Inverse folding.
């Protein structure tokens, strides 16, 4: 609630979630943030926000925030609070000693696409100029590095050539390996609107799943996972055959076509339809829609990038644009959707191990010389740096002895978690620069440095369309948290004083602007020229697209309009990579493919979205989606617990039938790390990576399911300080075979725990859990039937449930959960509690709750379905129930429900 005695002000800034880069207006009183609305003046969103952006002010629970530096001096000790001077001096001392004893490549930095450009630049200078290592990589390795390779190999520079308007101007749009309805919702809103105004616009979605994005599709190709290269070559084959290529463009602006033409000759429609498992007719339709389009645009994301063939997929897609001359024109071109808010800035400042600032290459001696000269150091390191997967492997084998992690949660997000956790456990010194102390990685940090987060820091970010926006500070960071750039610069100064005593500082950066000003000169005259951009300029003219050289008055909307490419010959290059099947083929032991990806309302490891109970309304817990045929084959039912095994690990999770999946595919959202689902999704995924981009295969892992034999069940709920409860209770859940934690509620939040085990645990563990649930004293009704391993406790205060625990028998969980949600504690409760076995509404113990489809207006799926059954259409539903009238993120799903009823 807004305190009306304080003046509420508005600060324009940028959303900290996805690469759409929406402008937000933050309402605050300098101390607290009260609300967020879309910035009508921002050219990415023109005032709109999605369900995540519009709930930003509800996230960031202070109980979850890292507030003070914390240090431990031995692996077996707990961390304890320290001050910044001691923390950074200690870090500088350990780094200096490690560098002295083992050389520059014995340390590494693992950073993030969610840092600001200024933060990145400080880290890069620290690693390359002072430490003298190229061991600086970022989570963009898991995200965009295949797109980087794709653009550079095919077009000569890492630059998405299009802009958001092109999405509205395209005639045929190919959305491939992107669920933009969930992951880039505001662009999807723009597309919905464009399509409603120009119904002739054709939309093709290529995704093994039928996602909400398919709600706009004229054609959905549910290809076999990993078969994209075959599909693109098959399309080109047909375009050549049907004379739908642009020979003049190919002749004037490209090279390598003859070789590619020879390659795709073998990709006949029959062959491609078989490899992709789609119909020949659909393949023909797809090629025709592309070939006949006046303007053809493609959008892609992780379905292409996160693959052992990620680079090949990217280039094979760009080939289609070059062959048809569909690039450099309004509504045309290959357009990667950037995942994180500033993955682009990371690429610009050189934050992958193989890059240097200004789109330079660490492996290029001339580039190294240019940057070294600009920085005033003798030379930059020539040793190749490590990319994410290899970097953690070198931590694990002891080569890297000090690791600095910032703004990423590798103990959740990296594939093959067993190896990652071993690496983090054994690394002599792990520093973590984090805004939330609750992450999986925080557990492994020897030094935790509290970082300021969204709304509390200042700098710049570049979105998917090359547009640089200002990020502005509204309120002070909580506790002693500091902005990332300032932590990095402070540490760098201290380290320099130890390594090069008496030398002139390389880090004279009093403000983030001073970092940007130094950085931007490294872009001068290059493809991404930002020399004309400054914070003030963006304040005056609004967010701008690079290149924006000094003296320019406007940014560059579109690249390559002149057909000139930044390659040695000025020509774009056709790339002739053959299709290769995904590395983990299905076999008898692992007959299914595990696909992973986003939910609508959660962000990655959920350190932020996992603090807002209402963001669990859409999907309330970790559930594995399984195709109904596969379920039937294994005689499994909705809600059954299964043991999901891959070659690297296993975990237990409930399943749910989902006919949007191909048979043979299962899907688990990427968000459920070990904190929320014991084990965590990436226990299963594979570290195999693309040979060029080194981006790991996060979309396909061979798995098998077995029914989990865990008859003993536990269900617990406690309201109040949910983050503190979660932190306290999660370690105890280690004892169970299955444990899943989540939040429920809207105005008031509760932590919910579901667990299962082969047999009842010892009484001491339950007693410990009861104590943390506040069930060991006070107004608690209890029922125990030790013979059957059954025990129930409900705490009732002021006539409402405040916590409860059901053990051994959990049939009443939904009923009790609803009583809590409704704030009731009916009389029958007491009678029920004393009954030997529950006779209360006996639904399946792990049945999924009714979900909240529209989060803004709190409208449930059952309410919407009931409306549809009464014959209401989308507009009437909006009018009568209010659903879909705010952010619109739920509209595709509502349409899907309507269509379900429409199809008899
Ligand atoms: N709500 C939400 N939005 C986000 C994020 C978030 O965490 N939550 N994260 C942001 C980030 S960092 C990123 S990278 C983006 C990711 O955005 P997206 O890439 O759109 O999201 P994903 O769900 O990871 O994967 C997209 C789709 O790829 C499909 N896919 C899997 N394998 C294949 C394949 O072999 N071929 C094809 N063609 N498709 C395949 C999956 O079925 C999935 O539907 O989202 C950004 N936006
Ligand atoms: N199975 C599977 N795994 C995946 C993926 C997948 O599709 N499937 N996708 C991959 C992709 S594309 C990505 S991008 C990664 C994302 O993986 P991560 O980078 O691990 O994701 P986040 O949870 O966003 O981590 C960012 C961290 O920074 C913290 N933070 C927030 N703001 C600040 C700040 O201002 N400063 C600092 N220092 N810290 C801050 C947050 O609390 C959070 O813990 O996951 C990858 N992992
Ligand atoms: S689409 Fe949503 S998550 Fe992405 S930047 Fe905009 S408001 Fe933020
Ligand atoms: Mo990403």
């Amino acid at each position: 609630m807004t305190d009306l005695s304080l003046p509420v002000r508005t600060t324009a800034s940028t959303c900290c979630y996805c690469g759409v880069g929406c402008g937000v207006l933050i309402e605050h009183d300098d101390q607290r943030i009260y609300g967020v609305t879309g910035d009508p003046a921002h050219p990415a969103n023109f005032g709109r926000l999605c369900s995540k952006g519009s709930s930003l002010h509800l996230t960031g629970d202070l109980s979850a925030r890292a507030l003070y530096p914390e240090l431990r001096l031995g692996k077996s000790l707990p961390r304890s609070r320290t001050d910044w001077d001691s923390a950074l001096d200690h870090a500088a001392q350990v780094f200096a000693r490690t560098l002295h004893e083992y050389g520059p490549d014995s340390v590494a930095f693992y950073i993030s696409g969610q840092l600001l450009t200024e933060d990145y630049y400080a880290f890069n200078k620290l690693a390359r100029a002072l430490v003298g290592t190229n061991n600086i990589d970022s989570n963009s390795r898991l995200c965009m590095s295949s797109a980087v390779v794709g653009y550079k190999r095919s077009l000569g520079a890492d630059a998405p050539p299009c802009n958001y308007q092109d999405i509205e101007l395209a005639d045929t749009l190919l959305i491939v390996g992107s669920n933009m309805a969930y992951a880039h919702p505001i662009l999807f809103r723009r597309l919905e609107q464009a399509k409603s105004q120009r119904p002739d616009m054709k939309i093709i979605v290529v995704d093994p799943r039928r996602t909400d994005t398919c709600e706009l599709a004229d054609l959905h190709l549910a290809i076999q996972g990993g078969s994209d290269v075959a599909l693109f070559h098959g399309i080109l084959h047909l375009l050549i055959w049907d004379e739908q290529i642009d020979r003049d463009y190919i002749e004037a602006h490209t090279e390598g076509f003859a070789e590619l033409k020879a390659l795709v000759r073998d990709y006949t429609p029959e062959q491609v339809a078989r490899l992709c498992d789609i119909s020949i007719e659909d393949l023909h339709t797809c090629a025709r829609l592309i070939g006949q389009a006046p303007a053809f645009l493609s959008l892609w994301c992780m379905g292409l990038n996160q693959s052992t063939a990620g680079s090949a997929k990217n280039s094979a897609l760009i080939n289609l644009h070059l062959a048809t001359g569909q690039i450099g024109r309004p509504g045309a071109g290959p357009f990667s959707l950037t995942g994180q808010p500033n993955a682009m800035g990371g690429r610009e400042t050189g934050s992958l191990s193989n890059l240097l600032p200004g789109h330079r290459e660490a492996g290029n001696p001339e580039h190294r010389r240019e940057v070294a000269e600009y920085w005033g150091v003798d030379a930059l390191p020539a040793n190749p740096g490590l990319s994410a997967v290899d970097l953690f492997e070198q931590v694990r084998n002891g080569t890297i002895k000090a690791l600095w992690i910032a703004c990423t949660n590798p103990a959740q997000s990296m594939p093959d978690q067993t190896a990652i956790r071993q690496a983090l456990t054994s690394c002599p010194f792990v520093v973590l620069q984090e805004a939330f102390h609750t992450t999986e990685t925080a557990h492994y940090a020897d030094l935790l440095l509290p970082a300021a987060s969204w709304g509390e820091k200042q700098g710049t970010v570049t979105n998917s369309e090359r547009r640089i926006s200002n990020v502005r500070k509204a309120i002070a960071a909580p506790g002693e948290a500091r902005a990332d750039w300032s932590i990095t610069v402070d540490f760098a100064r201290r380290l320099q004083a130890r390594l090069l005593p008496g030398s002139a500082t390389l880090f004279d950066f009093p403000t983030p602007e001073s970092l940007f000003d130094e950085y931007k000169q490294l872009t001068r005259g290059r493809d991404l020229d930002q020399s004309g951009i400054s914070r003030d300029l963006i304040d005056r003219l609004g967010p701008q697209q690079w290149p924006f050289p000094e003296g320019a008055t406007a940014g560059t909307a579109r690249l390559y309009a002149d057909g000139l490419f930044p390659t040695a010959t000025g020509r774009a290059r056709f790339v002739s990579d053959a299709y290769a099947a995904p590395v983990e083929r299905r076999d008898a032991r692992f007959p299914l493919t595990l696909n992973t990806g986003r939910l609508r309302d959660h962000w990655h490891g959920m350190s932020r979205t996992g603090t807002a109970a209402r963001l669990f309304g859409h999907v309330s817990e970790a559930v594995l989606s399984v195709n109904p045929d596969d379920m039937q084959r294994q005689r499994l039912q909705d809600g059954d617990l299964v043991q999901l095994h891959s070659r690297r690990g296993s975990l237990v999770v409930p399943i749910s039938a989902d006919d949007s999946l191909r048979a043979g595919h299962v899907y688990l959202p990427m968000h459920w790390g070990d904190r929320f689902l014991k084990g965590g999704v990436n226990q299963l995924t594979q570290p195999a990576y693309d040979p060029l981009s080194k981006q790991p295969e996060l979309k396909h892992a061979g798995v098998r399911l077995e029914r989990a034999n865990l008859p003993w069940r536990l269900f617990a709920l406690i309201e109040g300080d949910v983050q503190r409860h979660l932190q306290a209770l999660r370690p105890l859940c280690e004892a169970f075979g299955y444990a899943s934690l989540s939040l429920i509620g809207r105005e008031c939040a509760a932590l919910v725990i579901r667990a299962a085990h082969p047999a009842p645990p010892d009484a001491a563990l339950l007693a410990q859990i009861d104590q943390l649930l506040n069930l060991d004293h006070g107004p608690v009704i209890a029922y125990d039937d030790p013979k059957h391993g059954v025990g129930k406790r409900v705490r009732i205060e002021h006539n409402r449930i405040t916590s409860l625990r059901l053990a051994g028998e959990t049939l009443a969980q939904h009923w009790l959960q609803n009583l809590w949600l409704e704030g009731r504690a009916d009389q029958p409760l007491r009678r029920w509690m004393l009954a030997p076995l529950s006779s209360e509404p006996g639904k399946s113990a792990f049945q999924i709750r009714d979900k909240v489809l529209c989060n803004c207006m709190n409208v449930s799926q059952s309410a919407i379905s009931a409306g549809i059954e009464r014959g209401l259409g989308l507009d009437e539903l909006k009018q009568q129930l209010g659903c879909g009238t705010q952010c619109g993120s739920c509209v595709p799903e509502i349409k899907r429900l309507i269509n379900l009823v429409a199809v008899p």
Observations:
- The chain is about 30% helix and 20% strand.
- The radius of gyration is 27 Å.
- The domain at 145-336 is CATH 3.40.228.10 (Dimethylsulfoxide Reductase; domain 2).
